[in-house]
Write a structure and sequence with these properties.
This protein is of the alpha+beta class. It has one domain. Helix content is about 40%, strand content about 15%. It is flat.
């Protein structure tokens, strides 16, 4: 992973919306770098930190991926 691939992340939850009421928010160099960084982190957690990966997976057991590109000036 290169510096800047993933610059921030967090997750939000709201009370309505049923199955899709949680949101992972992340930012980085570009969409491809962010997706790759999250994949690497997920793989490391799954292999090395089983309890942490289980907790991470319970936050969002099913998902739909949506990528937004925000133009910065």
């Amino acid at each position: 992973m290169q510096r800047g691939d993933l610059t921030s992340w967090g997750w939000l939850q709201h009370l309505v919306g049923g199955k899709y009421r949680r949101l992972l928010v992340s930012d980085g160099r570009d969409a491809g770098a962010v997706i790759a960084a999250i994949g690497r982190i997920s793989g490391e957690l799954r292999g090395q930190q089983v309890t942490a990966y289980r907790e991470f997976s319970e936050i969002c057991p099913s998902h739909q991926d949506v990528v937004w590109g925000v133009m910065r000036r």
